[in-house]
Each structure stands twice: as structure tokens, then as C-alpha cells.
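[recover] target loaded
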């Protein structure tokens, strides 16, 4: 059995989820007649403090629907240069929606550079530029290492956007991790954004599914875009049933994942050749890099390390040019972390015996 730290997407549905899926009452969701999906959507809207919600198959589709709904063809979207939307979603908004993406620098905590955003918002009167329709933010921030931005930072972006008649979408794939780290309700954290996508199938352990939330009129338009993308799923209440369990039973335990991630981070900081800032680790994701003296490990050395770690029973992933990512989640206990630390130390020792 591997200790799988590649992602929290590897989590398995719990026994309660499987039972709820088995028992789920279902209907045709394209007619809005699946009672379980309707219940999940109402629950999602309530928890996030938004008017309405839409169940979608994946986080990627949820973000694509949001961008296509907010920004029409030829209208621009401002995204962080480190954002999942820009880096890992195959250019959805531009490919499918004809919206150019303008990138702005991302600070180490995942916050967008506000000056760059201000300059990035197009001057309406200039016919050379595409009008800006949307700004996207991400919380927690994956590629920054699970970092979190707080209410005031989000409000600063929203205020700037709204002054210019621009909407704000939050990629909150792991918004419950962010809210847990800040110890505030999700609804408070997202109150100033126009739309939010969050995932059920990461730390919350559901097998499939994400939700897009926002105003009723926005969600009505988003339903049509979901249809265009083939995301109208008929009797998908079997999936929504697991999502309801995820929201009702799996949020509180996220704090354990954060503790385990911190434990891993401080343990890694003690291992030769590893560079990590353990005090920057606030949720369930950490990044570290490998160095030999002043020299960072080359690509092939990183690949060798990942193979050696695998031989030790530990699965890790790469993120960015030089970083290795570890993600904690349900099923990973403190004892697994201690075992992983021994294995990682051994893997490095095999490459550079001390
Ligand atoms: N992220 C995955 C990979 O794609 C990198 C992971 O293992 O972390 N937003 C954010 C911030 C995400 O981290 C992800 C998934 C998504 C959106 C997309 O969600 P899915 O995988 O459901 O399409």
C-alpha cells in the first residue's frame, strides 16, 4: 500500500457516502427534477451564502462555465499567472469562449498584484483592447502551496473590480480548507465575490462533482452553458448524494489534514537537501525543493528522487519547475506522515549518501 500524497483527489468515498448513493432518490436533472441534486444545490447555496448553485461534473468544468457565463466572446478575463485556471485547465475560457486571458503576477500568498490588476483592467474607451469582464482569484492557492487569502484581501479585489463594472469569480476548489485555516465560515470568506466554484471530490472525499454558486440569474445562464459543455447529467443524484455527505460530514475533519501537513513540513525541514518553509504551510498542501549544496536538483535528479520515494512506498507529485508537492487528506494519519518522512530521508540518502 502506498502513502499517496500526490493529491487530495485520490480520496475514496466513505462508507456513509456509498450508502447514501445506494439509497439516493433520483430524477432527470436536465428537467431540474432530481431531488437529491436539488437538495445538494440548496445546501451549497446556503453554506456559501449565495442565492443559487449548480452541480457540475468537475472543478475544471465549473470554472469554464463561470468564465463563459461572465465573459462573452472577445471579453477579457484577468487571471493570476500561477492560477489553476490559467495553468491547468487547457485554456478553457479562451479555447471555448473566445475570451483572452490576461495574466497578472501572483504574490507568494496567492494574492493577485493589485497594481497589476488595476493596470490590467481595460480602458473602455480604447478600441485596441478587449473589454475586461472578469477577474479570477484562487483560494486556497494550489501552485503557491495551499496558501490562503483573507476576507480583506478578497474585498480589496472585489471593490476594485466592481468599481469598474467587472465581476469576480473565485476558484475555491479547496475553499473549505481556506475557511478552516482562517477559522471563519465560508459564507463570510466569499461574501464579496460574484461567483464561486468549489470541489466535493478533493479533501471532502466525494467521488465526483463540484458546485458553482452565485446569483439566481447568473446560475440560470450557467445552466445553459453547462448544457453546451455536455454537463447536464440526468440521474446524477447518486453522485450528489455523496456530495451531501461530503458537506455534512467531511468539513470538520479538514483541520486534521492541516495538522498532518504541518507535521510533514517540519519533518521535511530536518532532512538534508530539502528546502522548505514550514511556517508558510497553512492548509493541506506543501511544496518543497531539493538542492545539492547551492545547486537545485536537475530534472533527472528530481525524477530519480520521485522514483526512489515510490520504491519506499511514498507517492509525491511535481508542481512548477522545481517544486515537489505533497497533499494530505482523509486516510493519511500522523503515523503515515512519520513513515513518509523516514522513506523520503532514505530516498535522498540513496541519491546523495551522506
Ligand atoms: N487540481 C488538481 C490538478 O489539476 C493539479 C490537483 O491535484 O490539485 N482548481 C484548483 C485550484 C484545483 O486544484 C483543481 C484540481 C481544479 C480547479 C480542477 O478540479 P477538477 O480536477 O475537478 O477538474
Amino acid at each position: 500500500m502506498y502513502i499517496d500524497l500526490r493529491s487530495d483527489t485520490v480520496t475514496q468515498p466513505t462508507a456513509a457516502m456509498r450508502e447514501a448513493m445506494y439509497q439516493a432518490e433520483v430524477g432527470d436533472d436536465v428537467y431540474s427534477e432530481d431531488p437529491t441534486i436539488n437538495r445538494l444545490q440548496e445546501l451549497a447555496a446556503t453554506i456559501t451564502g449565495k442565492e443559487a448553485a449548480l452541480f457540475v461534473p468537475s472543478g475544471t468544468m465549473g470554472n469554464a462555465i463561470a468564465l463563459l457565463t461572465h465573459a462573452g466572446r472577445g471579453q477579457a478575463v484577468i487571471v493570476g499567472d500561477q492560477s489553476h485556471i490559467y495553468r491547468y485547465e487547457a485554456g478553457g475560457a479562451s479555447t471555448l469562449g473566445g475570451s483572452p486571458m490576461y495574466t497578472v503576477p501572483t504574490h507568494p500568498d496567492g494574492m493577485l498584484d493589485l497594481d497589476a490588476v488595476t493596470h490590467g483592467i481595460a480602458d473602455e474607451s480604447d478600441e485596441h483592447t478587449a473589454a475586461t469582464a472578469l477577474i479570477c482569484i484562487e483560494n486556497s492557492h494550489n501552485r503557491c502551496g495551499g496558501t490562503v487569502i483573507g476576507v480583506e484581501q478578497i474585498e480589496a479585489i472585489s471593490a476594485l473590480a466592481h468599481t469598474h463594472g467587472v465581476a469576480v469569480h473565485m476558484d475555491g476548489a479547496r475553499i473549505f480548507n481556506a475557511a478552516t485555516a482562517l477559522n471563519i465560515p465560508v459564507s463570510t470568506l466569499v461574501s464579496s465575490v460574484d461567483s464561486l466554484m468549489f470541489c466535493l471530490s478533493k479533501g471532502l472525499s466525494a467521488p465526483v462533482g463540484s458546485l458553482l454558486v452565485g446569483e439566481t440569474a447568473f446560475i440560470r445562464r450557467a445552466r445553459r452553458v453547462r448544457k453546451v459543455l455536455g454537463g447536464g447529467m440526468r440521474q446524477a443524484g447518486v453522485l450528489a448524494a455523496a456530495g451531501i455527505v461530503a458537506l455534512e460530514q467531511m468539513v470538520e475533519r479538514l483541520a486534521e489534514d492541516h495538522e498532518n501537513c504541518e507535521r510533514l513540513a517540519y519533518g521535511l525541514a530536518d532532512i538534508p537537501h530539502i528546502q522548505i518553509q514550514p511556517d508558510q504551510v497553512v492548509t493541506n498542501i506543501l511544496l518543497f525543493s531539493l538542492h545539492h549544496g547551492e545547486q537545485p536538483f536537475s530534472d533527472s535528479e528530481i525524477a530519480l528522487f520521485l522514483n526512489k520515494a515510490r520504491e519506499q512506498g511514498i507517492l509525491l507529485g511535481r508542481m512548477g519547475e522545481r517544486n515537489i508537492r505533497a497533499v494530505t487528506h482523509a486516510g493519511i494519519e500522523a503515523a503515515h506522515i512519520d513513515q513518509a518522512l523516514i522513506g523520503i530521508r532514505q530516498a535522498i540518502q540513496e541519491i546523495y549518501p551522506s
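[recover] notes: Residues 7, 9, 58-60, 63, 84, 88, 138, 142, 171, 173, 199, 201, 210 surround TLP (CB under 6 Å).
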